[in-house]
Every structure is written in C-alpha cells, then in structure tokens.
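yo, OsmC family protein is done. seq:
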Amino acid sequence: MKARIKWIEGVAMLGESGSGHGVVMDGPPELGGRNLGVRPMEMLLLGMGGCTQFDVLLILRKGRQDVTDCVVELEATRAETDPKVFTQIHAHFIVTGRDLDPKRVEQAIRLSAEKYCSASIMLGATATITHDFELRSA
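structure:
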C-alpha cells in the first residue's frame, strides 16, 4: 500500500491514496490552517470507523442478515500531552434492517474488533476501545 502527501500551503495538505483518491487535510486557523479539510487525527479515526463498519457489514451479509443501513458513531479522547495519542475510543453502531438477530450483530462487532479490523487493532495498542450497538427496524 502506498500513499503520498503533498503540502499545499500553511498546514494544508493533499493526501493521495495508492488507489488514486485524494483528500484535503488541514489544521485550525490558530495553527496556521484555513480549515479546508479534516485534521489528520480525525482522518485516522474516520479510517478506523470505515474499517470496522466494512467488516461488520460483510460478516452480517454472509450471515444472511437483512441490513438496510449501518452508522458508526465514534467518540475519542486523546492524551493531553505529546504525543497526543488516542487513549479511549467508543464505537456506537446503529444497525437498521429486517428481523436482525442481536446475537449475530454482537458477534460481527466482536469479530471485527478482535480479528479483522486492522485499524482498530493498531489503535488498540494505545487506546481502550469499547463498542455498543442498537438495532432499528427497517
């Protein structure tokens, strides 16, 4: 996997993925930014959320669960001193579908957290990661 980060101006950067996609990252005005894009640490948190959601949806589809929507709400706390790593992350899954089995949803989240989501497992080296979920009927 490859990536390239090109400095634009101030603290704004253009990230380019190996698959050819781009994203603007920037900092707040008080640090020389213009607020043109997400912060790099926000991008890291978004990556974890996308990684775990991908796993959970794949596992539920293989388990023949009729999922119509899935949202992962993340809340993270960072250390107060440098390096300001994530110390706590909570992932709240809102899974919508028809006749969803709560045990299968719980198992899919656990499998993602413990076995499949490389982003969660890496961030788990410095942060305590917790999960919960709610089911909604489609």
